[in-house]
Amino acid sequence: MLACADTEADLYFSDLLPVTPNFQAELIADSNRDSSNRGLKWLADHGALFAADQVRVVISGSPAFVYAVTDTLIAAGIKDTQLEADVYAWAPR
To answer: Is the pTM of this model over 0.85?
Structure first.
């Protein structure tokens, strides 16, 4: 799981994340709204791992964030059929 927020305080649910051997969480606070955002950089660097495993990726957030993540993951090799977001239905490009 990757959670991105503007500030550490916005990562309000981190204490509720499960602690299991097969669960990994990356919690990244960075208010940059461009490709220099640490969360987007993390996705660009690790996205190929998700593509190789055919992982389903659920994206949530504002339309601008969802589409920035979408573009980053597709550039990393993930197929659009692996991606899910409610934004795709109510705020299509």
So the answer is: no
pLDDT for residue 20: 67
Q: Are 59 and 84 in contact (CB under 8 A)?
A: yes
Please report how the helices 63-75 and 38-53 are oriented relative to each other, as an axis angle in degrees rounded to 10: 50
* Range 65-90 burial, b when 16+ CB lie within 10 A, else e: bbbbbbebbeebebeeebbebebbee
* CA–CA dist 9, 84 (Å, integer): 26
- Pairing state between β 83-84 and 26-29: unpaired
